[in-house]
Design brief:
Radius of gyration: 35 Å
Helix content: 25-40%
Largest sheet: 9 strands, mixed
Structural class: alpha/beta
Distance between the termini: 60 Å
Shape: elongated
Mean pLDDT: 88
Oligomer: single chain
């Protein structure tokens, strides 16, 4: 593979090179036209016409160009240490003096540019010396000037050197200044009148002039300032200002300044749009600072009593970043940097081997034989791993050690990305599961729930877990024990009915799983077949087409369809909060994963909450009873840092509701709580975050953090090159597109396709814009470029598959891919705009180069404060220790007092209560609406209402169902004690009672209305939840707390989209900002105009967008 350090250098050289078309993207200082207008402009002789004003306007609004900063330099704090003190600052840059060709004749490079070197020496904070050196075609000018600094305010002295004309002193009257107007300097800073071949060129515009008649004299100034902060500390400032240029005629007389961008044209001014070259810009600008007789007073971290605050303090770079060479006592200033990330080594337990530690700790806590099995499997799978990290050893002890108090316990594990967190909690959990297999204490069922925040991460981690389970199961089955099983349950997990529809509608009988074979590493596949024609369901079989791994053991180890998971619950269930939220309140028959007794069909796998049901409603087979199931005793929450804001608040209540459901289903005491494990690479204040998430009642907490070797020893890990770029002359998307273009060009030169490249953006609109632009600029590989955002819905899994197999080479993604997903193949990454949290940045770069050297292009947004902060403090992004300190400063809390979250969680807990009742099948499967017209519905409705109201209220409703009286309003009756107790336990600590009660009464009022409705037909509670309550009470949505809008796009078949891809959901606030009629929005790299905004037919008039947004 090509050297990625070389790639980084070549890309930077391309972006900052003086020969770049028009002007470079970086290392450029633009003109200060306002000062130039004051200093050189002449009102009686304007150089801009009306037509050129229109041209200037369109230059200003060009989305791919920017107004370039005109100041470059620094502020630095020093402490004088002797009597001979010097701060030496050197600025180097070049100026364009001629275009690269004239009349189709190439112009030699030394005629196109002149190199300028400005060296400023500040001596004893009193005297300043400026050395000017200009070299180029027929030019070698040197000049030395000295001047004393003069006081301008209390404790501040300064001097300006203006070259070659007075400029800023005309704008800011009274500043101390020295004009360096030597004729040789003026001529050396002028554009050429003609080339050595005798050809002249033009400047642009309808007043375009020949170079024989007009010349541009580059003008700039240097400001040297010293501020005495206290008797022992001074602040030195040296800033370079680009004033643009002064226009002179053929006799070197000043005639004014350009008020709009001017370009050199190689020929006829009418062709300037095709070939033009910017003037007035200082190119390839760089600065260097050296000092003697001073002690530097800046630092990258400040230590206080109990914490460290990272960040550059005492040195402020201006429109650049500072790179310090400690040995040379030198600081380099530039607007780009290439840094090689070093990773300190995590402390290992080097005394004992990993298998020995596993067996020793297991034996200590009564799991000796189980520990031996897991140790053998570990040794087989991780042959290159000889030792455990010390934090993994501590996690083994913490999870296996019996709790000393009643209630639950919570372990929080923090370690860097790819630092072994999964093994830290997986090993002890597997030891416990195997122990139950060996002792016969297991009755089947889920022992551990693994929560992952995204489906992509869940699939990825299932692959890691399966590798260890596969080796473990070979040992267990060989000795006659049952294997350990793992199931995957999330929104993309199919049902057997869906498999049948794939056969019937698409003729499809096989598809890839997004999990690799534990034997050969190739993709597993699943085949499915209907047992009879049009059976309506199909049986699945997981297999490996490449190596033929034992299919029986594979299917006993890995469960991939819902019916299989519900009818034979796995030992470990991989899922997400969204799925558990819905299962708790909507699907009693799926609650076998919580330990609920159910009836199941041995033939098709369908489950039923009515354990006395005899015949399967799907295939007609006799049912069996599934009982004596275990329940989840361990709940793992990976990437816990993502549970923040509204999402974190709602997940917090989901966990409390889950605990109460498990207690209710399994008749456990109120003091019972599970064992939690929280894991993250970037969790600040771990104990406090854990307490906010799961509550501290009946819970003990322990935190384990990975420790690093103090010796400075580094891990032998893949090298990660960070390239920091602050676009100056062009918009960030244009700069990133050029980065990708140059990168692709280099790989094509090596006869290779572009490497797998993952680009992270912060907004969907940015993703669509970049996909569109990259496809346009990289037309040769446009079919290898795609996006990964919520625009793609269920197709995101297909995009991930195509990317992981190399069918896609460049993927532009939002944060959905920033956690845990390991594609193994990503060599190039892009961070397009900084996320607000460094922890999010760490997760993003953690997806890049996990198993090979990689390069990360960091593109900072010039108009975002957070980007400027992180650009100036670039070490926080690539120095692991500083990064860790910064993440400790990031505070985000999980609040349970958000009233909207409280209302929704209370309503969900009400349905949890109903779904967990032993007779829930009567109203979840049986019809309850329009109960007055049917005795069966009346019976089902009474069963439903009996759980909601106390006996007195229930009697009133029974009379109403008999037609003796109207039903009483919900607000006037008393809820059942059982319901109130359940809600209190499910919502600990009890939120505001009025908020909770009002929300619940509103739902109950709707249930009463439906029970007594006169609409024809009937509906079960399941149907009512899905058709009405789901959207009315926001039951499904836990990732935000706002109303949802749906974008409906026109027929997109001509763009390759199917009908199901014509809609996407968006929050109302987002839609209000981006979907006003006539506004342009993007979708999958395409652009559309909003035609109409309206409410859906099923929505109430009060939910009209106009009422919701503008009221």
């Amino acid at each position: 593979m090509p050297d990625l350090g070389y790639v980084a250098r070549e890309v930077i050289s391309f972006l900052k090179g003086r020969t770049h078309t028009e002007k470079p993207h970086i290392s450029v200082l633009g003109p200060d036209r306002r000062t130039a207008r004051v200093a050189f402009g002449k009102k009686t002789q304007p150089l801009i016409t009306e037509e050129e004003e229109a041209e200037a306007f369109y230059e200003e609004i060009d989305p791919y160009r920017r107004i370039v900063p005109y100041v470059f330099g620094y502020y630095a704090d020093f402490k004088p240490s002797n009597d001979e003190r010097v701060v030496e600052t050197t600025f180097t840059f070049c100026i364009r003096t001629a275009p690269p060709n004239v009349n189709s004749k190439p112009v030699p490079l030394d005629q196109q540019f002149r190199d300028v070197k400005l060296r400023v020496r500040l001596m004893n904070e009193k005297n300043a010396e400026l050395l000017i050196n200009i070299r180029g075609f027929s030019t070698n000018v040197s000049l030395r000037i000295q001047e004393m600094l003069k006081p301008v305010s209390n404790n501040v002295q300064e001097i300006w050197f203006e070259i070659p004309y007075a400029s800023y002193s005309k704008r800011y009257k009274g500043i101390p200044h020295k004009v360096v107007s030597d004729p040789s300097i003026i001529r050396s800073l002028a554009t050429l009148d003609k080339t050595d071949s005798g050809y002249y060129y033009f400047f642009n515009g309808s007043r375009g002039a020949r170079s024989l008649d007009r010349r541009l004299i580059y003008a700039f100034a240097i400001r040297i300032s010293v501020k005495k902060l206290n008797p022992e500390l001074v602040r030195v400032s040296v800033l370079l200002y680009n004033c643009g240029g002064c226009v002179v005629d053929s006799k070197w007389r000043k005639v004014g300044s350009y008020e709009v961008a001017r370009y050199m044209l190689p020929g006829d001014p009418g062709n300037y749009r095709i070939d033009r070259w910017s003037t007035e810009y200082l190119l390839e600008i760089e600065g260097r600072i050296k000092w003697s007789g001073y002690q530097k007073m800046w630092t990258w971290k400040q230590s206080f009593d109990s914490y460290v605050v990272p960040g550059l303090k005492g040195f402020l770079p201006k429109n650049c970043l500072a790179v310090e060479n400690e040995e040379a006592r030198e600081v380099i200033l530039r607007d780009w940097h290439i840094a090689k990330e070093t990773v300190p080594k995590i402390k290992c337990d080097n005394v004992r081997s990993a298998p020995e530690i596993i067996k020793e700790i297991s034996s200590k806590y009564g799991y000796q034989k189980a520990g031996e099995y897991v140790a053998k499997a570990f040794k087989d799978v991780f042959q290159s791993v000889s030792n455990l990290y010390t934090f993994q050893t501590k996690a083994l002890t913490s999870i296996l050690k019996p709790s000393e108090q009643e209630g639950g316990k919570c372990l929080v594990i923090t370690a860097r990305t790819a630092g072994g967190k999964t093994l830290a909690f997986l090993l002890p959990i597997l030891i416990k599961v195997v122990h139950e297999k060996l002792t016969g204490s297991s009755f089947g069922g889920v022992k551990a729930l693994f929560f992952y925040p995204t489906k992509a991460l869940a699939n990825d981690q299932a692959e890691t877990i399966l590798r260890l389970i596969w080796s473990l199961n070979k040992l267990l089955v060989k000795d006659g024990y049952k294997p350990v099983s793992v199931g995957i349950l999330h929104g993309d997990t199919r049902t057997r009915k869906e498999l049948a529809r794939l056969i019937q509608r698409q003729g499809k009988r096989m598809e890839d799983l997004r999990i690799k074979c534990p034997v050969c590493g190739n993709r597993l596949r699943v085949t499915f077949e209907e047992p009879s024609v049009n059976a309506g369901w199909a049986l699945e079989k997981v297999f490996c087409e490449s190596c033929g791994a034992d299919p029986d053991l594979l299917n006993r180890s890995l469960l991939v369809v819902r019916e299989r998971i519900y009818s034979t619950p796995p030992d470990i269930l991989i899922t997400n909060p969204d799925t558990i939220n819905v299962t708790l309140m909507y699907s009693p028959k799926a609650q076998s994963v919580f330990g609920r007794n159910v009836a199941f069909c041995p033939n098709c796998g369908e489950t039923y909450s009515n354990i006395n049901k005899r015949k399967c409603g799907v295939c007609g087979s006799s049912l069996s009873r599934l009982d004596k199931l275990s329940y989840p005793k361990v709940i793992v929450i990976d990437e816990a840092h993502l549970l923040r804001g509204v999402f974190g608040s709602q997940v917090s209540f989901v966990l409390l509701r889950l605990e109460q459901a498990i207690r209710a289903i399994n008749h456990l005491s109120h003091s019972w709580r599970p064992h939690y494990v929280l894991s993250s690479a970037t969790l600040n204040n771990p104990k406090k975050r854990a307490e906010e998430l799961i509550g501290d009642h009946n819970m003990s907490f322990d935190t384990i953090e990975a420790e690093y070797e103090e010796s400075g020893e580094e891990e032998e890990l893949p090298v990660k090159w960070h390239v920091f770029i602050m676009p100056k002359a062009y918009a960030p998307q244009a700069t990133l597109a050029r980065v990708m273009e140059k990168s692709a060009e280099l790989w094509l030169k090596w006869e290779q396709l572009p490497p797998s490249t993952l680009i992270f953006v912060n907004r969907i609109a940015e993703a669509n814009s970049l996909v569109y632009l990259l496809r346009d600029m990289l037309s040769g590989v446009r079919n290898l470029i795609d996006g990964h955002t919520t625009d793609y819905g269920r197709q995101r899994a297909d995009v991930e598959d195509r990317f992981s197999t190399g069918e896609l080479r460049i993927l532009v993604a939002t944060r959905g891919l920033e956690v845990g997903v390991d594609f193994d193949i990503i060599k190039v990454g892009g961070i397009y705009g900084m996320p607000y949290y460094v922890s999010d940045y760490v997760q993003r770069i953690g997806r890049i180069g996990r198993k090979a050297d990689s390069i990360v292009f960091n593109i900072f947004m010039p108009d975002k404060p957070i980007d400027h902060f992180l650009f100036r403090n670039w070490k926080l992004l690539c120095n692991l220790r500083l990064r860790d300190h910064q993440m400790q400063q990031e505070t985000y809390t999980i609040r349970r007092d958000n009233q909207e979250v409280v209302k929704r969680s209370a309503v969900r807990a009400l349905f949890d209560f109903l779904s967990t009742r032993p007779d829930s099948h009567l109203f979840y499967e049986g019809e309850v609406s329009n109960a007055l017209t049917s005795q069966t519905r009346k019976r089902n409705a009474i069963a439903l209402l009996s759980h909601i109201f106390d006996q007195k209220a229930l009697d009133s409703f029974m009379n109403a169902l008999d037609g003796q009286q109207p039903p009483p309003p919900a607000s006037s009756i008393t809820l059942s004690k059982e319901l109130e107790t359940y809600l209190q336990k499910a919502l600990i600590p009890v939120p505001p009672v009025n908020v909770m009660r009002n929300a619940i009464l509103q739902v109950i009022e709707n249930i009463i209305q439906d029970v007594f409705s006169q609409q024809p037909g009937g509906a079960s509670l399941t149907q009512l939840i899905y058709r009405k309550y789901r959207e009315a009470f926001f039951l499904w949505h836990i990732r935000h707390a706002e109303r949802v809008c749906v974008y409906q796009f026109p027929d997109l078949q001509q763009l390759g989209f199917s009908d199901e891809e014509r809609e996407r959901e968006r929050g109302l606030v987002y839609a209000f900002r981006h979907a006003v009629p006539g506004q342009i929005i993007s979708y999958r790299g395409n652009y559309f105009s909003i035609k109409l905004v309206k409410r859906s037919p099923s929505a109430e008039p009060s939910e009209d967008p106009a009422n919701l947004v503008w009221r």
